[in-house]
Amino acid sequence: MGDGVTRSGSKFTRHAEPSTETLDLVEPMKILFLHGWKSIPGGVKPTYLAQHGHTVLNPQLPDDDFGEAVRIAQVEFNLHRPEVVVGSSRGGAEAMNIDCGGVPLVLLCPAWKRWGAAKTVKAGTVILHSQLDDVIPYEESRELTQVSGLPTESLIEVGTDHRLADPEPLAAMLQACINATAE
């Protein structure tokens, strides 16, 4: 591919020239990225993480079977043991429903009220959400933060829509991954 991304199965890695950007000066991480409903592997967000030197595990998750999507996510987690799990929208609900022990979660507009049994997240979870999200209300992330007993700074307001695919939310997602693994 011309984008510098190598894809093999459900993972891909960006082979980039050295960058002077601060976000590129961290040790490479292995990240499990769980995409949203009606999304596909290799989208803007996982590609952004890979472009910053990280190995991104990005399995294809079925839209029509939440239980099967969680099972696939759990198998990927168990097989690859990532350092952080990122879940976008429905992928956030999937991330909440896998057993990932002490591995931190970074959730992007999580659709936790629509799918799965998990109604709280563990300490250290970071949630990114736009107040302008017209798919998953921002208030649902505020509620998740509160019922989980997370500090208010665990919810980061960023972006202008549900996708969080603009430069500011992409950088915030990467920074949340870096911060989560540094603790």
Query: Strand tally, please?
Result: 8
The H-level CATH homologous superfamily, spelled out, is Alpha/Beta hydrolase fold, catalytic domain
Q: Please list the strands of the largest sheet in the order they lie side by side.
A: 1-2-4-3-5-6-7-8
Give average pLDDT, whole number. Answer: 88
N- and C-termini, Cα separation: 35 Å
Reported for the largest beta sheet, the result is:
8 strands, mixed
- What is the radius of gyration computed over CA atoms, rounded to a whole number of angstroms? 15 Å
Question: Which secondary-structure class do the elements indicate?
Answer: alpha/beta
Helix share, percent: 25-40%
Looking at the structure, what is the overall shape?
globular
How much of the polypeptide forms β-strand, as a percent range? 15-25%
Helix-strand string: EEEHEHEHEEHEH
The CATH first-level class comes to Alpha Beta
CATH architecture: 3-Layer(aba) Sandwich
DSSP helix count?
Answer: 5
Instruction: Tell me the domain tally.
Output: 1
**CATH-defined topology:** Rossmann fold
Low-pLDDT stretches are 1-20
